Amino acid sequence: MKVTINGGDVEMPDGATVGEAVRRLTPLTSGVAVAVNGEVVSRGGWETTALSESDLVEVLTAVQGG
Amino acid sequence: MDEVGDALAEDVFLLGGEKFASRLIMGTGGAPSLEVLDQALEASGTELTTVAMRRLDPASRGSVLDVLRRRGIKVLPNTAGCFTAGEAVLTARLAREALETNWVKLEVIADERTLLPDPIETFDAAERLVADGFVVLPYIGDDPALARRLEQAGCAAVMPLGAPIGSGLGIRNPHNIELIVESAGVPVILDAGIGTASDAALAMELGCDAVLLASAVTRAQRPGLMAAAMRSAVTAGRQARLAGRIPRKRYAEASSPNRL
Could you tell me which residues are beta bridge partners of residue B19? Predict the structure, then answer.
C-alpha cells in the first residue's frame, strides 16, 4: 500500500504500523510526535495502530524557532 | 538582608503555577548554529525558551532540545507557522506528545508579510486548548480588549507584541501595553519587536512581567553579548518598575537648595 509520510509517497507492506512509518525516518522515539490524517497517535499506540492505503502521516520534532 | 536585597529576593516571576527567577524568555529562531545559540542562552540566564514544531528531517544533525536539556531550560513549544485554529490545536497536541509538556505559546498568524497574529483564530484556538488542559500563552496584538477576553477564557498569560516579529522596531504603542498591564490579572509578556536592550527595559518599566525575544539576540552581530545586555536590561527595567519612577514634569525642579 502507498502512504504519505511527511509529504513523500512511501510504499509499505499491508498492515504496517505507525511505528514502522516513524522508523523509516528516525530510530528516535523521544522528542517525536505523529499525526495520522490530522489526529495525534500517542507513542503508546504506535505499534498497535495499523496504517491504511493513502494515509497521511506527519512525523514532527522540535526545531529552532520563536 | 537590606531593603534592596529583600525586594529583589521576593520578586519571583510566577507563570502557569511555576516560579522563575529570570524574566527573560528566549526564542531559538535565527541563530546561525547550535553553538552560538548555546552561548547566547547561557549569557541570557533564561529558564524558559521556545521551540517550533516541524517535520522531522532525517538529515539534520544535533537538536535544539539537547541544548535546552543540557542547560536545564524548560522548553516552550510554539505553534508558529499556523494560520488557523485547527492547525494550531493539532500542533500544540503534537508538541505535548513529543515534548511532554502541556505548555504552549499559541501563535496563529494572519499573513506571511506582516506575521501579525489573527485575533479570531487565536481566540478560537485558545478556548479549545484551555478546555484540553493546556497552559496557553497566546501571542496577540497590543489590544487590551482581546487581552482581557483571553484572560477570561483561561489563558495563563497574555503576550502582546511590541512590533511585528523580527522587525526590531521596539514598542510602537507603549500606551496600549500599559493599558493591558493595568487590567490584566495574569502575567503580561512583551513578545516580538524588541530590537535592543532599551526596548526590553522599557517593556519592564511599563509593567510587563517578562519579555520574550529571539531575533534581537540571535541575529545580533555578537549574540552572546546581546543576550547579556538583554539580561541586564530586563533586570534593570524590572527594578525601576518596582522602585517607582518620578513623575514627568513640564519644568525643572532643582535638586540642590536654590538659595545660599
Answer: B14
Q: Which fold has domain A2-61?
A: Ubiquitin-like (UB roll) (3.10.20)
Q: Which residues of A touch B37 (CB under 8 A)?
A: 64
Pairwise CB contact (< 8 Å): A63 & B50:
no
- Contact in structure between B76 and B28 (CB atoms under 8 Å): no
Instruction: List, for residues A9-43, the tens digit of each pLDDT value.
Output: 999 999 999 999 999 999 888 899 999 999 999 99
Per-residue pLDDT, B241: 96
Q: At residue B130, what is the residue type?
A: V
Question: 10 Å Cβ neighbour count for B13?
Answer: 19
- Cα–Cα distance between B233 and B203 in angstroms, integer? 10
The answer to whether A7 contacts B55, with C-beta atoms less than 8 Å apart, is yes
**pLDDT tens by residue, B40-98:** 999 999 999 999 999 999 888 778 999 999 999 999 999 999 999 999 999 999 999 99
Q: What is the interface size between A and B, counted as CB pairs within 8 Å?
A: 95
Q: Indicate the residue of A31, A59, A66 with minimum beta-carbon distance to B29.
A: A66
Find the closest chain A residue to B213 by CA distance. A66
| Complex ipTM value | 0.93
Taking contacts as CB-CB distances below 8 angstroms, the residues of chain B near A26 are 56, 58
Nearest chain B residue to A65 by CA: give it. Answer: B29
Mutating which of B56, B76, B132 best tests the A interface, going by the most A Cβ atoms within 10 A?
B56
Q: Do A40 and B90 touch (CB under 8 A)?
A: yes
| pTM of structure | 0.92
Domain layout of chain A by residue ranges: 2-61
CA distance B182 to B160: 13
Residues B49, A63: Cα–Cα separation, whole Å: 12
pLDDT tens digits for B2-47?
A: 777 777 778 899 999 999 999 999 999 989 999 999 999 999 999 9
